[in-house]
Specification:
The complex is a heterotrimer of chains A (222), B (220) and C (109). Chain A is of the alpha/beta class and 222 residues long. Helices cover 29% and strands 27% of the residues of chain A. Classes of the chains: A alpha/beta (222), B alpha/beta (220), C mainly beta (109). Chains B and C meet through helix 3 of B and helix 1 and strand 7 of C.
Chain lengths: 222, 220, 109
């Protein structure tokens, strides 16, 4: 895939490295001369194409080939910039998938199709989620917000008292608006099927849409 | 009219002072409290420290569909955020955004937001967009017989031709601005909502021009 | 009369207003900047996440495309049956093409 990342802070550089390692073509844009020249000089992340410029300008996005990009990720430390990059990517270049980082959770409500955002990731929410995950097995942790909050990826690590243990997925009584997308067990990914039986300690990743979060929580957490 | 001015730089403070001295109910929002020093001691309006696209801040500033909002911070991106939130979330009709980069203006005009390029930016222009009241002419000829005035085409005026406007106002449309680009229109050009017209008219025909533009019927 | 008409036509070509070469709707490709002309055959208010949006479908003899303007409930002059030109970069949505906040030009009937 052809991926453009706007913002070469730690988040952008990390993503670029990971994606490049997975065989994708990654271009990193930043308007800080120092950051870009250092990135070019040290060749880190390896293989990434650097571009010096303001990603909020159509000319910059044109120059890095946004017209052919499969994904644009707007991950600067500035929510305004991320929204404008997203809007331009969608409106001017019809980029199929636009991912944006929310820095201030207060702004999360704007990260939706009004600004061309397909998927938003709130770093503070994610971090809070991960901390919660570390300290509390058995709670419902929101990881990702999709389609402007209409759908969420959440994770539950099944505690000893979970009503889901030893049940098949079809018997959990999960609402139709939710789907178990993966079960992580002993470091492996179990592709969930209707007859998959859940164990204590399983990390269940579930996609929840609409207002059924409470029902999912009840089925998995109790 | 209640007017919210976001950004208290040179333009923002000038607009706020001018509005307040004309008995408008003004509140100025800026991220930095120091910025309000520009308003001086005698400023009659209110000030508020906060981020202009924050819904809570705008609500506290008394935003309603009938008020006017000027997004005049020093950042294009902030201004466009403020303008969209005011217009789309709060339904404010009179919104204007200051955009420094003219290449961006055309993109934002498509969203239906009035932008004014910074070169052309004067507080008089902001006031005109905000208050949508009888505009001061851009130019008057020495004999005071003709004036050039600027008008933004209302929804009701969309679909009529430049020729209709000229016939109805006894004037000439000299420049037409659309999506941030200007052109010299011929009489057959169809007007669209939010087109900006510069019209030469006999000095007394301002009302006639407005009547034509607000006329609901299309011409055929 | 014919001279007058030609004069008029030339004038229109001379205006710098955008009157780009349009292509049949069936030739529209995703992610290519194009201009298409057609009649408005459907208008839908499509609020998303509590914000307004206006979706219109335009059709010529060869096909139909959709244009969506976010944040708007209506656009003056854009009504059912109106001929309109749309210029922008469409994205594929299922089996049809959709423009986001495109440029538009009202056309004579």
């Amino acid at each position: 895939m052809n991926v453009i990342i706007a913002g070469a802070g730690s988040v952008g550089r990390y993503m670029a490295g990971q994606l490049q390692d997975s065989g994708h073509d990654v271009t990193l844009i930043d308007n800080d001369t120092k950051v870009v020249s250092q990135g070019r000089a040290t060749r880190t992340p390896i293989g990434v194409t650097w571009h010096l410029g303001d990603a909020c300008e159509v000319a910059t996005l044109t120059a890095v080939g946004a017209a052919e990009a499969d994904v644009v990720a707007a991950v600067t430390g500035d929510d305004e910039d991320n929204l404008v990059v997203s809007l331009l990517s969608k409106q001017e270049f019809a980029v199929p998938r636009v991912v944006a980082r929310v820095n201030n959770p207060k702004n999360e409500w704007m990260f939706n199709d009004m600004w061309g955002v397909d998927v938003s990731v709130s770093t503070p929410h994610l971090l809070t989620g991960l901390v919660e995950e570390a300290v509390t097995v058995g709670s419902f942790v929101r990881l990702l917000s999709l389609e402007g909050g209409k759908a969420r990826l959440a994770e539950v690590t099944l505690a000893a008292g979970s009503p889901a243990i030893a049940k098949e997925l079809t018997d959990l009584g999960l609402p139709r608006e939710s789907t178990v997308v993966a079960v992580l067990r002993d470091g492996h990914v179990v592709v969930p099927r209707g007859d998959t039986v859940l164990h204590q300690g399983d990390e269940v990743l579930v996609l929840v849409s609409g207002g059924v979060e409470d029902d999912v929580r009840r089925a998995l957490v109790g | 009219m209640h007017v919210i001015v976001v950004g208290c730089g040179r333009v923002g403070s000038e607009v706020a002072l001018s509005l307040a001295s004309n008995e408008h109910d003004v509140i100025v929002i800026d991220r930095r409290a120091e910025a309000f020093r520009r308003l001086g001691e005698d400023f009659k309006g209110n000030t508020m420290v906060g981020v202009g696209f924050d819904r809570d801040v705008l609500t506290e500033a008394g935003i309603t569909p009938d008020c006017a909002v000027a997004a005049v911070t020093s950042g294009d991106n902030s201004n466009i955020l403020i303008a969209r939130v005011a217009r789309e979330t709060f339904g404010v009709k009179h919104v204007v955004a200051r955009i420094y980069d003219p290449r961006r203006a055309s993109i934002y005009e498509r969203l239906g937001i009035a932008t004014v390029a910074s070169v052309a930016w004067t507080s008089a222009r902001v006031l005109r967009h905000l208050l949508a009241e009888e505009a001061t002419p851009d130019w008057i000829d020495p004999s005071a017989k003709f004036t050039i005035i600027e008008r933004r085409v209302p929804a009701a005026g969309a679909g009529m031709t430049v020729g209709d406007v000229e016939a109805g106002s006894s004037g000439r449309v000299v420049v037409l601005g659309r999506f941030g680009e200007a052109s010299l229109p011929v009489p057959s050009v169809l007007l669209q909502e939010d087109d900006v017209l510069h019209v030469v008219i006999p000095a007394d025909n301002g009302d006639q021009l407005d009547a034509v533009l607000h006329h609901k019927e299309e011409s055929h | 009369m014919s001279i007058l008409r030609r004069k008029h036509h030339d004038d229109q070509a001379a205006t710098p207003l955008k009157q780009p070469n349009s292509i049949p709707i069936c030739d529209t490709q995703p992610r290519q900047k194009v201009c298409v002309c057609g009649k408005v055959i459907r208008m839908t208010a499509r609020p998303t996440s509590g914000q307004p949006a206006l979706a219109i479908s335009i059709s010529d003899d060869t096909g139909t495309v959709t244009a969506v303007w976010t944040g708007r409930r209506e656009i003056g002059g854009v009504t059912l049956g109106r001929r309109i030109a749309i210029e922008g970069v469409p994205v594929k949505h299922g089996d049809h093409l959709e423009f986001t906040n495109p440029d538009y030009t009202l056309l004579p009937r």
